Amino acid sequence: MESATFISLGLYFLAMLAIGLYSFKQANTDVEGYMLGGRNLSPKVTALSAGASDMSGWMLMGLPGAMYLTGLASAWIAIGLVIGAYFNYILVAPRLRVYTEVANNAITIPDYFENRFNDKSHVLRIVSSIVIVLFFTLYTSSGVVAGGKLFETSFGLNYELGLYITAGVVVAYTLFGGFMAVSITDFVQGCIMFIALVLVPVVVLIDLDGWQGVTNSLTSLDGQYLDMFVSASSGQVISTIAIISMLSWGFGYFGQPHIIVRFMAIRSVSDIKTARRIGITWMIVAITGALATGLLGLAYVTEHGLQMDDPETIFIYLSQLLFHPLIGGFLLAAILAAIMSTISSQLLVTSSSLTSDFYQAFFRRDASQHELIIVGRISVVIVALVAILLAYDRNSSILSLVSNAWAGFGAAFGPLILFSLFWKRMTLVSAISGMLVGAVTVLLWIYLPFTINGQSLSAWLYEIVPGFILSSLTIVVLSLMSKQTDSAIITTFEKVQARLNGSASGSGNAS
């Protein structure tokens, strides 16, 4: 690898660390400032931060790899994600922004759950925190795996060393800058990802003499790579169940703490509409570029008679082959941006949960703001180390790790978030039960040794579908069986509705 590539990556690392230092100097000295940025994010930072933390290394590695193997059939995942992200902005963003502030200024998702249901027993906070720590540690490890593969493939470095470099830089700026550093770096990283995911497919398309050259290369292969209803890897027509599975990725958005926490931090409800427009436009372009990278990459490899050992590294392969080392370094920085933006968000949310929902809630209720920030920083390091240990299995599939964690959050928190925001009759018992049913269903669906038509349950139907459905049914049934008797909950719900109505009519906002 030429020195120009190292210069590009070195500048990127320095920029991320500089943002962390700047945020450290500018940040508030209280917990809300460290973990929620003082609820003062602008629409553009909110949008790109949410997008970058959502679209981790799997978008530049996992999704292109899936497209490389199965062809246009993988596009169903992208369609489901875009639809889910749009409705997340419509349904969750405005209500969560207001509710978390009205409900005793909650700064974490478990904190919101406890305040929303006036849970004096703290059971809901404990269970939701356990779910966050469990699935986010797994989720974070997927990003670290992507970083290890990047450094091994691009630089010939030891895979394990790549894990430590990736996690080390993220921990450095997250540790000191907190939520504001994570959000600003996400914004910069989102811009880098956007440029890269436009640049690479365009250059490959030009090299192949346009779309006609792409179709000629792909039709020469055994497999229908341009048919959305046929999996090119197996040659089988995609079943309705399989399409539902891929589209159902969109359900996951409603329960992803590292994404919806951005809605809690935006400076006002009136800014959400602008954030939505920016965020969805960014997402459509970026995810289309990721799909195109996999499909056009396959055409390029076929046309030039090349060999790909790991389809998930097609973006890396193309960036090294087609670009000057200086630009190639920038493109590799785009992968690091995708990886780091998600890892940092997940580390911060997990750290926030360990600090506020365990340490402060059960061990040191009177802890000072300075002490809580110190505990939060220690938690960042601990979670990162555990994620690195899990990532030592270099054969882990990035997309598989992400899909399991995504389903876990989507099924455990998705229905709970939606019903808690829209249904005042929802009860504490139904909230706890629905979350547990969703999480347990996902785990059982993944690990039970049963098959349908020769496929594991998870391969036959994405685990988020049964998890989301059973969690929703549990919440509805148990809420209807009991009556909401806590007048404080009803009062808070009505205050939220009044604030939202005021924002909609232009008479105020949630600032």
Automatic annotation (TrEMBL):
Catalytic activities: L-proline(in) + Na(+)(in) = L-proline(out) + Na(+)(out)
InterPro entries: Na/Glc_symporter_sf, Na/Pro_symporter, Na/solute_symporter, Na/solute_symporter_CS, Sodium:Solute_Symporter
Signal peptide location: none
GO biological process, one term: proline transport
Transmembrane portions of the chain: 6-24, 73-92, 123-141, 161-184, 191-208, 228-254, 280-302, 314-339, 372-392, 398-421, 428-448, 460-481
MF-aspect GO terms: L-proline transmembrane transporter activity; proline:sodium symporter activity; sodium ion binding
Organism domain of life: Bacteria
UniProt entry tagged with the keyword Cell membrane: yes
Localization (cell): Cell inner membrane; Cell membrane
Keyword NADP assigned: no
Membrane topology: Multi-pass membrane protein
Listed GO CC annotations: plasma membrane
Keywords: Amino-acid transport, Cell inner membrane, Cell membrane, Ion transport, Membrane, Sodium, Sodium transport, Symport, Transmembrane, Transmembrane helix, Transport
Family: Belongs to the sodium:solute symporter (SSF) (TC 2.A.21) family.
Main function: Catalyzes the sodium-dependent uptake of extracellular L-proline.
Protein's recorded name: Sodium/proline symporter
